[in-house]
DNA 3'-5' helicase (Polynucleobacter paneuropaeus), 782 residues
Amino acid sequence: MYSDLLANLNPEQGEAVTLPPVDQNGHAQSALILAGAGSGKTRVLTTRIAWLIQTGQVSPIGVLAVTFTNKAAKEMLIRLGAMLPINTRGMWIGTFHGLCNRLLRAHHKDAGLPSTFQILDTQDQLSAIKRLLKGLKVDDEKYPPKQLQYFIAHAKERGLRVKDIESGDDFQAKMAQLYQAYDEQCQREGVVDFAELLLRSYELLKHSEPIRTHYQERFRHILIDEFQDTNALQYAWLKLLSGHDGSRPSTQRSAVFAVGDDDQSIYAFRGADVENMRLYEKQFHPMMVKLEQNYRSHGHILDTANHLISNNTERLGKNLRTDAGHGEPVRIYEAASDSLEASWLVDEIKALINSGIQRTEIALLYRSNAQSRIIEHALFSAGLPYRVYGGLRFFERAEIKHALAYLRLLENPNDDTSFSRVVNFPTRGIGARSIEALQDAARAQQCSLYLAASSLEGKAGAALGGFVRLIDHMREATRHNTLPETVEFVIQHSGLIQHYLGEREGQDRVENLQELINAATAFIAEEGYGQDAKAATLPGENAPGDVEVSPLASFLSHASLEAGDNQAQAGQDAVQLMTVHSAKGLEFTSVFITGLEEGLFPHENSVNELNGLEEERRLMYVAITRAKERLYLSHTQSRMLHGQVRYNMPSRFLEELPSDSLKWLTPKAKDARWGGRSSGSTWNDGYTRQREYESNDFFDSGSDRPVTRAHSTLSNNVKRMAAPPRDTYPFKIGQNVFHTKFGEGRVTALEGLDTDARAQIHFKRHGIKWLQLSIAKLAAID
Ligand code: ATP
Ligand code: MG
């Protein structure tokens, strides 16, 4: 029967799936599948789980699998369900955070947490830190909250508590002291941040021998996807759980199956360390399988990716080939400005949709979130439905966070972050002074704001008492409700709905609040909570890890853990927008990588360090390899970012691509950086400077080979538009001008109307550039 599972795999994939999980001596045998993008790593990992179960080597409850996103975990469960006649519900497949949350819920007492502990997302964490600094009267200019947040996350990701941090200078010492105070505050309030989830569950396993042994014996197979992006703590966690840290004799360890691609390591800034792959090789002695067949991308796309990444020096080395044929060349487009880039994107997307491509199969990728606004605007104006991954997620919207804060207080009234968020929202006459007095009282009594509320007297005390009674009343009244009923009750009785109904633009927010009831309904259905609202457990299994958690508690964890995941609803046909980071592991028929400019991609913070640049290049490799059939790369000459117009050079990555696989939709200059400091061009060659064109959509050359066109200007080839009357422009062709950044230049072409009007200028020192006249600061100098 299991040959069915292997039927959809090539021989190397089949070999990887069926690697023996024990060696001749009966010792667990770990594995490392090292392979490039689109070679089927995730498919192999999923099939491996199915194969292990089907061949009776493990039962579903003996498997622990780690994915990079919640969405990937869901997909894996669905695939497994399709491969095997088993109920996958309750299997331990999830992200590190999701799995650790589960572990801590099951053993909250041993972990030193209240059963109702809440998870702080990054935003909540920052407000908790700000509150802490204020309470301690710490100068937040000297010790910026964000820096403290980073310090704490950084330490936790390395498994370091305050006592493990070596004392440095005064600043370090103060940060460590604040880290300690922050942890105490979290403990008091019964909340944990993301890094704490991991560290706390690591410490739980480390220090509690019976719990550790239970899970070590239970999880005989541990599988992990995207292994290259694990951090030091996650690696230690794996070592511990599998018994490879020395906590178990070599005959009793679990088999680890890791899949990864060193070329796709893109989370170093969050503490991920590709070095873990080398450590793993040394410490787990895994069997290695390389996969070299790519099933995702057509030839030109794959060649482009391979060519680019060969510029990196720090690589483990591997190849990728495809049987899919060359396919379409990679198209490159240069726009004069970001808004023109966006309108080109819209035109191109419309053409793709007309040719029958589904909107969900089109992805627009960008390096920084800030780039999405202008693209969103263009898509919106063109009436093209789109979805943003990662951006401001549903669960991060203010009104949703308010509603969740009330719900969290029902679960855990000592959660001061939630308490502070809604004590006076909607307003109930509790001013900043009263809150300060309350905070002082709570500090003095070493208790939560909720508990301290009754100690205040006077008007403030009465108002606070009213709030506390409201929370208690909501808790009591919803005790026997289903989760959606509770959500509905809370958004009504907290006054949130009425508040937003009274706001001029509150309709959207009211709809979002109502959507929260739908989200709760969907959650109950997906998680399989029955009428009796009990957590689902696997049949016949009542392991401590499968304890019952209330639907509300699970829903609140779910809301906090959705971080960065796709918020698009299944089946909704919309164009997909996301940062390159969040595109990891995904694939689309058509991909646009936008904003390929120096300073943007590669990011300006990275270009001065070799490691930084290599990480950016891996990021570009990830971006390119998301595309199956069509890949577009675009860049612009000017861009409005962070309130400033920037004139960027084209990204160096464009120069690192194989010219045979490219098709320039706009002209490319002969020299290394077109539009940049041109090698052969002099001031005198003016606008008749020779440019080499390759065939493009505007030349019907009838061949795909490069053709050379001479004496052309961008304006009469790129945009076929009637020349506007000359006096439309403030400058004339041939006129000398001065630009604050590029210095002196001469106008060599003019095109476009109104706000789209732009001039091609040949700058003495900076070569040829197109500038949008409504933005560029140009002055005539003769
Ligand atoms: P990434 O590095 O981007 O995470 P990956 O190595 O995990 O990629 P998968 O996502 O597993 O690759 O596979 C890429 C695509 O190729 C998927 O659409 C998958 O279904 C398909 N695929 C993988 N193996 C095969 C195969 N043997 N036959 C046909 N299609 C395959
Ligand atoms: Mg994958």
